[in-house]
Amino acid sequence: MSEPVLQARGLAKTFGHVVGLDRVDLTLSAGEVLAVIGDNGAGKSTLIKCLSGAMVPDAGTISVEGRQVSFRTTQDARAAGIETVYQTLAVAPALDIASNLFLAREQRRPGVLGTVFRMLDTGAMKKQAKQRIDDLGITTLQNINQAVETLSGGQRQAVAVARAAAFGSKVVILDEPTAALGVRETGQVLRLIRDLRDRGLGVILISHNMPNVFEVADKIHIQRLGRRLGVITPRSHTPAEAVAIMTGAATLDPAQDADDLVDTPRNT
């Protein structure tokens, strides 16, 4: 069996007397969508910040494809092939789609124009941006010269996901990607998530939307009060059962933990 593309063991993080993470384990395979669910204060945000380099855990280990890593910054995580799309999206509204895809990764023109005069190779970036959007099958973004501030919420989310997919060679983390989106735009984002999985990337989806979670997730990691309660699948539990476990109204039988079971890939 191949090594997980991303694995965390015993992650702990405290903020004074407040426990953010209490010895949390997480396992993500390539070509898998792992949803992370939990009430407010469950530690979801702290967990993804530790996995994406935005926060340094107090204890525990993180491994990428079996190699232990130490992320001190988000750039460290990006260099390891992990991209994160936060709920705030972090797009530059005044810039066009192509410029947003290469934000903080701008390409310079070859030769002295790039090295001495530091001129950007806008033509190459636009061509690559169009190719990457086409490869992802994003049909809602037709004009890469269009300013992001003129796009709908779903289109802006598509830009952020496309940027993550373009540079996230191993893992893409999505924080509430369908929040505040309509039904049609939500469907487009869910299709993008499936496309990322089908391309062999590991996807971590943080969401409060149980129908969305059960539609696209292969496994569901449940957090409560900073602890990992266990991992279930859409085949082993219903959305109501997942919510009951998440809120403490029910407990998960350790024998049902999906991380301890041999599971077959999901076909959708």
Automatic annotation (TrEMBL):
The keyword ATP-binding applies. Keywords: ATP-binding, Nucleotide-binding. InterPro entries: AAA+_ATPase, ABC_carbohydrate_import_ATPase, ABC_transporter-like_ATP-bd, ABC_transporter-like_CS, P-loop_NTPase. Gene3D superfamilies: P-loop containing nucleotide triphosphate hydrolases. GO terms for molecular function: ATP binding; ATP hydrolysis activity. The keyword Disulfide bond does not apply. PROSITE patterns: ABC_TRANSPORTER_1, ABC_TRANSPORTER_2. Pfam families: ABC_tran (PF00005). Residues 6-250 form the ABC transporter domain. PANTHER family: CARBOHYDRATE TRANSPORT ATP-BINDING PROTEIN MG119-RELATED (PTHR43790), SUGAR ABC TRANSPORTER ATP-BINDING PROTEIN (PTHR43790:SF8). This is Fructose transport system ATP-binding protein.
